[in-house]
Amino acid sequence: MENTARWDRRRFLGAATAVGAAAAGLAACTGGAGDDLAGEVAGERNLPAIEWDLPTSWPASLDTIYGGAVTFAERVTALTGGRFRISAREGGELVPPLEVLQSVQGGGIPAGHTAAYYYVGLSPVTAFGTALPFGLTYREQNAWLYQAGGLEMLQEFYADTFNLIQFPAGNTGAQMGGWFNRQVNSVADLQGLRMRTAGLAAQVLGKLGVTVQTLPGAEIFQALQTGAIDAAEWVGPYDDLKLDFPAVARNYYYPGWWEPGPSLEVQISLDEWNRLPSIYQDVVRAAAREANVDMMARYDFQNTQAMQELAANPNVQLLPFPGDVMDAAQNASFELFDELSASDARFREIYGQWSTFRGSIHSWFGVAERSFLDYATAPPS
Amino acid sequence: MENTARWDRRRFLGAATAVGAAAAGLAACTGGAGDDLAGEVAGERNLPAIEWDLPTSWPASLDTIYGGAVTFAERVTALTGGRFRISAREGGELVPPLEVLQSVQGGGIPAGHTAAYYYVGLSPVTAFGTALPFGLTYREQNAWLYQAGGLEMLQEFYADTFNLIQFPAGNTGAQMGGWFNRQVNSVADLQGLRMRTAGLAAQVLGKLGVTVQTLPGAEIFQALQTGAIDAAEWVGPYDDLKLDFPAVARNYYYPGWWEPGPSLEVQISLDEWNRLPSIYQDVVRAAAREANVDMMARYDFQNTQAMQELAANPNVQLLPFPGDVMDAAQNASFELFDELSASDARFREIYGQWSTFRGSIHSWFGVAERSFLDYATAPPS
């Protein structure tokens, strides 16, 4: 209902301009056929030709996460009959992989595809756009963003802070905990570890004695191979095989408690967004939602195949994080959230609402979903 | 990549017709401005005005599941600037709620929104379009449909058998097991039970001594209230509260093992589909995916609220199915799948592929997703 209302209003506002343009275009044209056509064009038809590059944070070789940007770009292009043409670009091609947001904000590029939590250095609020440690799973994150007001709150924050608007356009699902060159048998084993991860996990792991570096995907393998870091996580089995992590570390931990359902997003300069015809804005929303569901399905399909390959590799040890590590990490996470709430009013405001939502939706997922998943995935007895 | 290729091919095929129509429309028009406009219209612009009713199997009062049809209809309308206008209609308004497929097949209506497994009486293959007992969760179902070839296989079957094409356009997530007027403490307690459910669950429960009736949503409450049935399941907390089930049965079981991630779908007559311009076909795909992700987010959000209300109701007993019921039901399910494979070649063909996929994706979900969900939803210690 809301969609229609919004649509109708925008269509009405847009109509005056469109009619004017159509009338100008038909100035030299007389006769009934021309009038009919003018009427048709006046509706919504004389749409501008637009071309955008879409820089991303991803190497093109990671075809699931980069694929989210490609899906978004291709669907916008298809749904506008090629009038609004978007081309995904790999990280570093136009702007550095971890500076997509700054480039959109600066007006150098109209839009990008990235993970909001790469920008926690600019504001910790960006973490909500991707994932908080011990936060929301894929479905919980979608429910929060689309239904519980999360996206509206974040869009208000992005508009005020970065002059941009963002839409969820992909998700990886619960990630793996990553590859470690030695075993983690207790919290003590984290002390002094040098690890690649991203988002607020850096500060949480910092509380547990880990030194964190946030490297872009394309730079992790070399850091792990040269011994510059002792451990690294990226996403999960499919990407990790592509990045060749099993060649340089053998202990593969789970779960990636710092990102149980991280969203990727399309970020668009508000100056560009406000210039788009309303139908293009609708197309952007649709294409982003398609990218959201498509990327998740791709990861789930590809990770399934990759996990079978990893399970058959005798050099790979698949290990759950010990209970005391999970507990210490959860405690450190909630301590950090309290500190950030004390120091940052925008974080505090969103965190209060998010935290209540998290508790209640976890309760619901603890019933039908959890009991079915536990039964279905139990090892054969 | 595939999307672009498909799109370009169709656009090319469509262009000749469009150019012809535009030229005819501009026959009376001379001068540069008219030529420019003709060029613009020739692209994809002179799109036909189409209006469709979209009958559903749902009462409009169930605004999550009926909402999937509304979302689909509104988004098609918005993305075509109102040129292709679809209106959702509640079950029974135009056709009986459980005869949507037959009505689309018969050509009486162009399209509908329903659950494929309502039509297992026509073919057991339809169950794959919704859910099989002990089958796939929401994400697993999407991965199978969109990535593992499931949708292509089913679309081939639908085309051959019903002369229609279908797209997933909603999901409820793992359902609850339903409301029982007495406790189910063992398999023996199922004997003689009269229950409302749908899909292949009817035959599985039949093997366990239950007599099943498949009633549309709007008729369940009365059957339960009058004692015509002893137990009923529909979807989950939000809908169940709307249908007032707690007023007539107090034992609320979980999980709904017969539908761990059921898809709802849009079904379209192939005669109508083949007449649509390719851009409208792309819009239908986009709107269906939006409805898929939107309905899931709505259910997750609304069920969370409703579960809190139910948990506070002293008349409601929340109970897990006993282990022997789960085991007996799973055994009966796989026995049924073997019987159907023996008697139905199309079922056998799809089941073989689906079954392998199910095993491997369950293994993957047993790692990061399960370990995180178990930790996150564990009762406070």
Characterization of this structure:
- The structure is a homodimer of 381-residue chains.
- Chain A is an alpha/beta fold and 381 residues long.
- In chain A, 52% of the residues lie in helices and 13% in strands.
- Chain A contains 15 helices and eleven strands.
- Chain A has helices at 2-25, 32-45, 65-79, 100-105, 127-130, 138-147, 150-162, 201-207, 220-225, 237-242, 270-275, 278-311, 323-343, 345-365, 368-377; strands at 50-55, 84-89, 111-114, 164-171, 178-180, 194-196, 211-213, 231-232, 251-254, 263-269, 317-320.
- In chain A, the strands form three sheets. In chain A, strands 7-6-8-5-9-11 form a six-stranded mixed sheet, with helices on one face. A three-stranded antiparallel sheet of chain A has the order 3-10-4. Chain A has a two-stranded parallel ribbon with strand order 1-2.
- In chain A, helix 3 packs antiparallel against helix 12 (278-311) and helix 8 (201-207) crosses helix 13 (323-343).
- The radius of gyration of chain A is 23 Å and the shape is globular.
- Residues 1-44 of chain A have low confidence and may be disordered.
- At the A-B interface, helix 1, helix 2, helix 3, helix 6 and helix 12 of A face helix 1, helix 2, helix 3, helix 6 and helix 12 of B.
